[in-house]
Amino acid sequence: MRRREQAGSAGTEPARVGPARVGPPRVAAAACNGCRLCELACSFRLHGSFQPDQAGIRVVRDHIQNQVQVKFVRGCDGCAGEAAPHCARVCPFGALHQ
Amino acid sequence: MGRIVQVDLTRGTCVDLPPEPYAAWLGGRGLGSAVVAAQVPRAADALAPENVIVLAAGPLAGTPVPGASRISVVTKHAQSGGISYSTAGGHFAPELRLAGVDALVISGQAAAPCYIAVADGRVEVRDAAHLWGCTTWAAEERLQAEWGDRAQVLAIGPAGERLSRVACLITAGAHAAGWGGSGAVFGSKRLKAVVARGSGELAPAHPARFMAAVERLTWKVKSSEAIATLRRVGTHGGAGVGGWSGRVPTSVRNLQSEHWAGEKAARIRESAYRGAEIGRTTCYGCPTACMHFYEWPEPGPYQGLRAEGMHANSVRGFGSNWDMDDPGAVLQVHALCNSLGLDTDGVSAAVAWAMECWERGILTAADTGGIDLSWGNAGSAIAVVRQIGAREGFGALLADGVAAAARQLGRGSEAYAMQVKGVGINEQGMRSHRAWALGILTSTRGGGHLSGSPQVENRQISREVGELLFGLPEAGVPGSYTGKGRLVAWVESLKAVTDALGVCYFNGGWYEVALMDLGEWAELYEAMTGLPSSREALTRAGRRIVNLEKAFNTLHAGFTRHDDQGPDRIYDLPNPDGPYAGERLDRGQLGRMLDEYYAAHGWDPRTSWPTRPTLEGLDLAELADALAAAGRLGGGGEVAE
Fold first, then answer.
1. Which of B202, B208, B427, B592 gets the highest tally of CB atoms within 10 A of its CB?
2. Is pTM, for the whole model, over 0.80?
């Protein structure tokens, strides 16, 4: 089993090793535009409602400096056992990769 | 529906209003217009304590519905005296709802500068002495330092503090609720900002249905060619100066013409800014990302300047409308408007008027304090915008908008004020696009193409699609007058629904025909709220909102058919050149379009006023009574099918 690196790792997708992923997806922070759909998808999976503060991913955009930070919190397991993490599935900008 | 909280700044009280009476208005603009109509006295000026300003999220805000992020700002219009509504994107509306409040109703006047904090269900009025004098950007930074980096801020800048009637509210740096002098209304109440922070929860009544509808809509948005273009080049590269391969009409030199010289347009078209783009930004939950973030790279006075969200109106308003082809200067004025809290359309119209008055010798250096207002003079334009924001020097004349400036100056300058219902306009296509022009002329908020102007006419949809969508093959034929009155009345209702749901017009049907199906929006509304809805119910809700606003305008501002005509030059001064050379609006044809438009709404064609049968048919009998008591109820009123 392979744990993906996070925080803007580049390079090609390594071949899948083992049956399932664990841990958060990789982040291409430069591609993130700060829409927070990932927070919504994550909280909906966890709680059946939209509670961005209760999501396993957290996006903060500084509107003045045009900087986005993406962090994983609350023990994100990368939607272990599912085909792809929900946050990566809904990201419109290709900023999250399993 | 969530909580509606009324904050009385005179007394310092925060009281919940019962939400039930407002449920039929959906939320957003609908709810805001209903509250303003119910609470604001006829005699009250927009800047009096008796005026109220409503910040209302839509019922879909804070969910993954694409573009459901807009906050509606509704108040009495500081220039027209009628209704004003605006919507701003960003992240404010979702945060307000996550803080437990759907709408804030702000009334009265504080004794000292204050801001309102809405945090996890608590609504408080707080001291803003440390924020007074700040730009919108500095106010946001300071409030986020106090309330956390997830807090969202809607603030005025110095222009609002100085009661400029073209001042606006700004959130997230570049998202404006621009219309109506809402910044001056905040300023008159000594209200600097509203900050929202919420860690709450928004739960769909029918989760599986809701998510299925969201997925369908998201798929449509992502597969739309029109929205893909919007993502790539923004409205700047679409309907902005130099767009449509140079065929886009654009207001030139204060709307004297609608075609700009190709070499000038080339200097400020979207592709000219690509080297400056350092990123994209998007509103809450939106996959489109139409906001481009620029940092000006070229050596000179604008090097290092950062600004985002420069859309078509800024480029037209500060570019062709001022004959200013310096791309850095256009970006600088855009940035100044955002940081000072000024509406770009209002500023464009006022300065364009001043430049034309200068050209004609009506204004001289003795009036302007020595500022040379020659067309396209970037240094002067920037200086004047700074003065407007500070209400000082020559800028003080322009600070209340073009109509007030022309009234004050006189000297025959009124003829050069481009305004509708007292509201300055920065528009295009008024001589060549019939329904587009009519929508600007009839807008309840006094001008602007984001009411009834059909985007389908710009897009030139085929005769088949026009027939399919509207039963009108000519819908996509810009020069045709046929059926355009009926089309505009329909688009006004559609747009009212979009605004009431708090959805962006780009993702909400106004912009993309594939998203025009109100049945889809009814499904989202019903699945989210649990309240029954349908295509017919939403259509009726839209008509109720437009009728309420029209009645408000009739009662408060006394507008008649005459006020739906606009400036003389769109009739009398044909386009001299360009793809639409020789085009102008024909007065007789406009009259026939208006007849058809009033008939489609069920209003009196002689006065334009709403009628009793129409209002009663929409369960708005009390408005008919109020209009009758004022002697302003229209006669007749069978709705034309």
1. B427
2. yes
